[in-house]
Design goal:
Blueprint lengths: L3 H10 L18 E2 L10 H17 L4 H4 L2 H12 L8 E3 L3 H14 L6 E5 L4 H14 L2 E5 L9 H6 L5 E7 L11 H10 L3 E5 L18 E4 L14 E4 L43 H17 L1 H22 L6 E2 L11 E5 L3 H10 L2 E2 L1 E3 L3 E5 L7 H17 L14
Parallel strand pairs: 1-11, 3-4, 3-5, 5-6, 6-7
Antiparallel strand pairs: 2-8, 7-8, 9-10, 10-13, 12-13
Helix pairs in contact: 1-12, 2-9, 4-9, 5-6, 10-12
Length: 416
């Protein structure tokens, strides 16, 4: 019989990223945190930097804008060079993921005025789908929804079948929020370009967890959040990517003064700057931007290649333990098995997954729940150890064996 604990200890001993765990705030070593794909842990450097930022505010007052004014671009350049495969000047911190998605989707459709179709898939994140529904209704466009396997992710073939010369925009998630399945970014982008469509990727579950080949895949546009694998904190500002050659061509719909040329001339007419800054809108949140900067820096320092490799290894270990311990209790894998096809989380299906998620929290393990009946286990590669995965799954097995999950209500809470 496999000694999973001994294996976990061996893997932790060989882990080159292990020292990064000490750079996060972990006040309770008993708590097993397996929800880093929803909200990352707090880096110690972020706590220190925010304290300094408050002192800047108190001491410098409005004079702080002499350096705060460039924070969004500074974060964007760190993300471009150290987290995403992009060039400086192609990424900027701005607004929320949903607002950025709307801005870029409208800009893309306006750049293809003779086309009338947006393509997405039925397992895309709900906010993304709602935005496209609203945009289609507002602009008289057609929304073409591709069927997706919710456990294995979107296929290139399914996307190809939805494409024709009336498609203006294809927008999908790089890593599926439910299953963690990784889409073939290069192949999907190439297929869309063959019919002359633009492509907009949502990187919310991939930035900071897996390699994101924006430049080599020829990606046009992308958006993503910073509070998951980039550890920037709850509600932290998002980012957007626009390929350099497209920036002068695209005009986003929310005309704000942070996108204006000669911003402080306070001109009467909107005249957007030619750079990535034209996709900004209003005054950026300085405290959130500092948090995003620290999260991006620690990710870039560790290296996205090493992070992706460890994330895949954590997932493979979790799947092996689950097959041995949890399958006999009715759990089934709801994610791709291959590490190259899976992002930073593993999802398990069980008819009573909601009750298990509540029982786990009571036992000192934090997962999250997603419909239909899925228990999602997220691994922050910079702070999650293999022994954490072992402990979390051991507690889950004990709950299953005792049936204690049945003591918890079947009715879902508002936050799952």
């Amino acid at each position: 019989m496999t000694d999973f604990l001994a294996r976990a200890r061996e893997l932790d001993a060989a882990d080159m990223l292990a020292p990064f765990r000490e750079r996060f705030v972990i006040p309770d070593e008993h708590l097993v945190y397996l929800d880093g794909n929803s909200l990352g842990r707090l880096p110690r450097s972020t706590r220190e930097r925010l304290h300094l930022a408050i002192e800047e505010w108190g001491g410098d007052l409005i004079r702080g804008w002499d350096r705060w004014i460039t924070l969004s671009r500074e974060v964007g350049d760190v993300l471009a060079g150290g987290v995403l495969e992009a060039e400086p000047g192609e990424v900027v911190l701005s607004d929320s993921t949903s607002v950025n998605l709307y801005k870029l989707a409208v800009a893309a459709c306006a750049a293809r005025p003779d086309r009338h179709v947006i393509v997405t898939d039925d397992d895309n994140f709900p906010s993304d789908r709602y935005i496209f529904q609203g945009l289609a209704e507002e602009r008289g466009l057609d929304l073409r929804v591709v069927k997706t396997d919710i456990d294995l992710g979107i296929s290139v073939e399914a996307v190809r079948e939805a494409l024709d010369e009336d498609v203006a925009l294809v927008s999908l998630s790089h890593v599926a929020y439910r299953s963690g399945a990784v889409a073939d970014m290069a192949a999907v982008t190439a297929a869309a370009h063959e019919v002359g469509a633009l492509v907009l990727w949502d990187l919310s579950h991939s930035a900071g967890a897996v390699r994101v080949p924006l430049r080599s895949a020829g990606v046009d546009l992308a958006v993503g959040c910073t509070y998951k694998h980039l550890n920037a904190g709850p509600g932290a500002p998002a980012f957007l990517y626009v390929r350099a050659d497209l920036q002068p061509e695209l005009r986003q719909p929310i005309w704000g003064w942070f996108g204006q040329r000669d911003q402080f001339d306070m001109g009467a007419e909107y005249d957007p700057v030619a750079s990535i800054d034209r996709f900004q809108v209003g005054t950026p949140p300085v405290l959130g931007a500092y948090a995003a900067l620290e999260g991006a820096r620690i990710t870039a320092e560790a290296g996205i290649g090493a992070i992706a490799e460890k994330g895949a290894a954590l997932g493979a270990y979790a799947i092996e333990v689950s097959d041995a311990w949890l399958a006999p209790h009715g759990f089934a894998l709801a994610s791709p098995r291959a590490g190259t096809r899976r992002g930073g989380h593993v999802t398990l299906h069980h008819p009573r997954a909601w009750q298990y998620s509540q029982a786990l929290r009571a036992a000192g393990v934090v997962p999250d729940f997603r419909t239909p009946d899925r228990l999602r286990l997220g691994f922050g590669a910079l702070y999650t150890r293999f022994v954490d995965v072992y402990t979390g799954l051991a507690r889950l097995r004990a709950i299953a064996a005792s049936g204690s999950h049945l003591d918890y209500p079947e009715r879902h809470a508002r936050v799952t």
